[in-house]
Amino acid sequence: MATQSPQPSEPFIAPQGAHIDLDGHPTDVLMRLEHPRVALLGGLLTPAECQALIDCARPRLARSRTVVASTGGEEINADRTSRGMFFERGETALISRIEQRIARLLHWPASHGEGLQVLHYRPGEQYHPHYDYFDPAQPGAATLLSRGGQRVATLILYLNQPALGGDTDLPQAGLHIAAHPGNALFFAYPQAHPDSATLHAGAPVLEGEKWIATKWLRERVF
Ligand SMILES: O=C(O)CCC(=O)C(=O)O
Ligand SMILES: [Fe+2]
């Protein structure tokens, strides 16, 4: 991002137009919603980038863990049956390029984000409805917030298309987003509160498999 522009108060997608040029990478804005703050992008990743992320992640997959808000730790949880892995920020040239593109798209520095997480769901696997922010009322919140502050927005990058099922659902908005390779779903929660209406779920994959990469944006350097 340009050094001269002050950092905005929250990640956002340019509010006008159907097309964004991200340093030479054309991206389509397919849909925006004001509440919750949602946008759907087309072509944020190329087919080759989607495949490269899957290929790099596949040998490193392990059963996904969820954050335990009561302690600030992590656990394997029946609510989340996918397998996944985290890339380090800037781990490879591909990861850096994608992180720079996301920083451009969201007007949010790459330093203010967790490493890209790749998730893989097989038939029957899902992620039950949840919020991505950390509940400040939980005893483990201080630990989770001590590095990077609160999560403020999520970008889900779809790497393939399951044969059946596997939508991302936002039930408070009545939204069902179908996974389509190269597309990305953005949602922001400037308040870490259910009023953000950002409850969301990865619906069960019914046939085939689903691959996504998730980027969680933080308030501060993570
Ligand atoms: O699988 C999905 O579509 C949702 C994933 C998700 O909620 C997350 O990674 O935080
Ligand atoms: Fe989530």
TrEMBL record:
Q: Could you tell me which Gene3D superfamilies the record lists for this protein?
A: q2cbj1_9rhob like domain
Q: Which InterPro entries match?
A: Oxoglu/Fe-dep_dioxygenase_dom, P4HA-like, Pro_4_hyd_alph, Pro_4_hyd_alph_FE2OG_OXY
User: Per its UniProt record, what Pfam families does this chain match?
Assistant: 2OG-FeII_Oxy_3
Origin superkingdom: Bacteria
List the keywords (alphabetical): Dioxygenase, Iron, Metal-binding, Oxidoreductase, Vitamin C
Q: Where is the Fe2OG dioxygenase domain?
A: 112-219
Q: Which cofactor does it need?
A: L-ascorbate
Q: Which PROSITE patterns match?
A: FE2OG_OXY
Q: What is this protein called?
A: Fe2OG dioxygenase domain-containing protein
What is the source species?
Comamonas faecalis
